[in-house]
Amino acid sequence: MSDNKLVSVETQQEYDITSGKSETRIFVKMYVSAVKNGLIADMGAERWQTLCVLASFMDAEGRCYPTQYQIASALNIRRETANRRVKSLCDYRWQGRPVVIKEQARSNDTQRWENARYTILPVSQLAIFDGQPSDA
User: Fold this and answer.
1) Which Pfam family, just one, is annotated for this protein (predicted)?
2) Shortest CA distance to 119 belongs to which of 84, 82, 89, 95?
3) Could you tell me the pTM of the whole model?
């Protein structure tokens, strides 16, 4: 990976010695290079905001399983608007490569759509836990 990081996701484990409880906190960090390399300007405010919300649901492999209602609630917008924003983000390409892909299948039993699975790809420079973003 290049030393020129754009965005990362960091976790912090906190242990309260008085209560004995542990808490994991997750942070999305934007590096100045994300601005200098043009990612933020190219992506635009709505796609950037939507990517940050999806990242808050991300596991170590970059997979996210939020519902449209969860995304809409986190963005403080209507579900239909959230759906359009997610579609725009999935259509977006950074340096010719997708940043997020969406996969959705129908249930074999009911033929209803199952919840979508979003995968934040390494080209986005978002990685969580021990994942490694790519610079290629």
Assistant:
1) HTH_36
2) 89
3) 0.73
Q: What is the mean pLDDT of residues 18-28?
A: 82
Torsion of CA 58, 63, 67, 73, to 10 degrees: 20
List, for residues 71-95, the tens digit of each pLDDT value.
Answer: 999 999 999 999 999 999 999 998 8
Quick one: angle between helices 68-75 and 45-55, nearest 10? 120
Q: Which of 127, 134, 135 is nearest to 11 (CA)?
A: 127
What residue type is 126 in one-letter code? L
What pLDDT does residue 73 have? 97
The answer to whether 121 and 100 are in contact (CB under 8 A) is: yes
Structural contact between residues 48 and 38, judged by C-beta atoms closer than 8 angstroms: no
Q: Greater confidence, 31 or 126?
A: 31
Residues in the chain: 136
CATH 3.50.50.60 fits 7-124, yes or no: no
Q: Name the 3-class secondary structure at 135.
A: coil
Tokens 């990685």 locate to 127
Residue (of 1, 8, 135, 126) closest to 62 by Cα position: 126
